[in-house]
Amino acid sequence: MDLVNLVIIIACVSLFYALFLFVKVKSQSAGNERMQEISSKIREGAIVYLKRQYKSVSIFFGTIFLIMIALSFCGIIGKFMPYSFLLGGLLSGISGYIGMRMATMANVRTTEAARKSLVKALDISFSAGSIIGFVVVGVGLSGIGICYYLLKQHLIHMDTAYNIESILGEVITNLLTFGMGVSAMSLFARVGGGIFTKAADVGADLVGKIEMGIPEDDPKNPAVIADNVGDNVGDVAGMGADLFESYVNSIISCSALALGSGFGESGVILPFLLAAVGIVASIIGSFFVKTREDAGQPQLLFTLRKGIYLSNILMCVFSFFLIKNIFPNNLNLFFSIFFGQICGMAIGYCTEYFTSSAYRPTKELSRSTKTGAGTVVISGLSLGMLSAFLPVIIVSACILISFFSSGGRIVTDFQIFSKGLYGISLAAVGMLSTLGITVATDAYGPIADNAGGIAEMSGLTEEVRKRTDMLDSLGNTTAATGKGFAIGSAGLTSLALVAAYINQAKMINPSQIFDLSIINPCVLIGLFVGASLPFLFSAFTMSSVGKAAMDVVCEVRRQFKEIKGLMEGKADPDYQSCVDICTKASVRQMLVPALIGVVSPLAMSLFLGVSGVSGMLVGATVSGAVLALTMSNAGGAWDNSKKYIESGHFGGKKSENHKAAVVGDTVGDPFKDTSGPAINILIKLLAMVSIVFVSIAVSGSLF
């Protein structure tokens, strides 16, 4: 049997397991009528937003598709590439949509479960998160697996000479175009969802908590439904599309390097197989996520770790025997995969240490609230910058070990050098191989957050809210860990994509010598421009959140002023107006940041060619990874610092310390949920667009 068929079968098993969990969660009680009414409003708002977003995105995809069709007729790109691009975007959008529907179905059931016990609430929210996780890996792996198989069989049928190298080269080129579609859709989902969720969150907090002094998720707050909708479209749909992109592109970039490294078809298939056995390991690990009723934060964290640890141990065992069967004379490739997993877990530990309220950094950040909001912001930025250093060292060590353990050497022979690059790409695949359970631990957080909102708006007991808050607080830490995971893998994947870009350029014109030395002015300019792109991108996304949040703040203030009896609970707020403001603002303002990832590599290709583009990709990867880690970790720490105070420390809720912490959290919201996590998609989109249009850089550059 063709091994790719086995990969597709295991990917389908992942989808069937997600279906099994869906039936389990769906069968649970959805609570009383009031709870169901609130959940329905959240679901309807999320659906309206995604419909508007997908309508706008379809115009972008349609335009790029027509341009690519024209280029294919001119012979500049392959005839299947436009369709690969479209399919990648479609599957990314589908995975995000399914994730949103699952989250809005599970939120009210988690609330009802929390009325019974913490154990039950964790079971329902984690099962719903697992649905999202296994849909992401199932759709992603089956998508690229089916594309690979069908394209290969078609080209074999068309090529009577059966030149397997050229056939695999064309298949990989189409998969890279598939990855470009995935990256573009993921960037829209992350940026658009991030703008929505943080505009609503900031607007609700600034007026509700600080100005009016009402609790979080108080039904009197007009922005409360928009805030809960944002959890689903940003932290679930956006996050799902983000990790879908990381997962798919790590596999594709690894396969792309296999041919140039001399590993042949076996090397091309290996990342597919690693992803497949990772699904099996994740399914087994998910059965071990159980806790006891009196569990605190450390016990809950260990519960989630238990599933991740077991999945990674099983993945190590499976990958060893996989390498032993496919490359019996090159067992060192196993160490690249192994150290990729170690690197992922180490980054997770670093992120947890700097963002969890169980450790000193976030406690010290909470202490800084005693002197006001200014010191909270300063301390949070300092914490974020400090937190970026260790993950960079970890990734650097992983690069070094993976490069040499896979047979790479720093020599002029590009094939030997490429063996090391293949090892680095295997480390990225190893890091993301158990993504099914990683996404589950990430996605359950927004579901628990929504559950807490429904509990507050439904007037349930304080005990219910306490249980959902415990899960939500833990979810902030696991979400930050997931972001660190994605950013770390983005660094490894982007490095592999830079190598794949140079490979593609050499294939187009083998006789041309590309000067990639640091003293080449084109490379140096590319480095500077590339390093500035994540900052330009972040400036646009942060500004978008600020503008949308101002509109929400003005609307919430207006309603509190004009709707008589609202503050006393005698009148209902107009929730829909805030949802509409966030929807229109996010759909309108997500386009410019997304275009940066498409226009920049094309412009650099036209002006500075392969040397300039290579410099741009390296510059964007280095600055982007550090900036993304800084923003994500600072935002996570600010959020958990606020929750730490709300749990009764440093004066508790409604104290001056709490107000200062809310300001810090407000600054951190777009850091951790809009700009930070979207940067890792940006740097891979830059690389994907560069690879797809590499012929322009090779033949048509101005300098």
UniProtKB/TrEMBL annotation:
Location, primary (coarse class): membrane
GO terms, molecular function: diphosphate hydrolysis-driven proton transmembrane transporter activity; inorganic diphosphate phosphatase activity; magnesium ion binding; potassium ion binding
Task: State the Gene Ontology BP annotations.
Answer: sodium ion transport
Question: EC number(s) per UniProt?
Answer: 7.2.3.1
A Gene Ontology cellular-component term: endomembrane system
**In the UniProt record, does the keyword Ion transport occur?**
yes
Keyword terms: Cell membrane, Ion transport, Magnesium, Membrane, Potassium, Sodium, Sodium transport, Translocase, Transmembrane, Transmembrane helix, Transport
Q: Name one Pfam family in it.
A: H_PPase
- Indicate how the chain sits in the lipid bilayer: Multi-pass membrane protein
> Is Repressor among the key words of this record?
no
Q: How is its activity regulated?
A: Requires K(+) for maximal activity.
Q: Signal sequence: where?
A: none
CC cofactor: Mg(2+)
> Could you tell me what reaction this enzyme catalyses?
Na(+)(in) + diphosphate + H2O = Na(+)(out) + 2 phosphate + H(+)
- Annotated localization: Cell membrane; Endomembrane system
**Site annotation (Determinant of potassium dependence): which residues?**
479
Which sequence ranges are marked TM in the entry?
6-25, 57-78, 124-151, 171-189, 269-289, 309-327, 333-355, 376-404, 416-440, 484-502, 518-540, 590-610, 681-702
Sequence similarity: Belongs to the H(+)-translocating pyrophosphatase (TC 3.A.10) family. K(+)-stimulated subfamily.
Alphabetized HAMAP family for the sequence: PPase_energized_pump
> What does the record note on quaternary structure?
Homodimer.
Q: What does this protein do?
A: Sodium pump that utilizes the energy of pyrophosphate hydrolysis as the driving force for Na(+) movement across the membrane.
Q: Please give the name of this protein.
A: Putative K(+)-stimulated pyrophosphate-energized sodium pump
Species name: Candidatus Improbicoccus pseudotrichonymphae
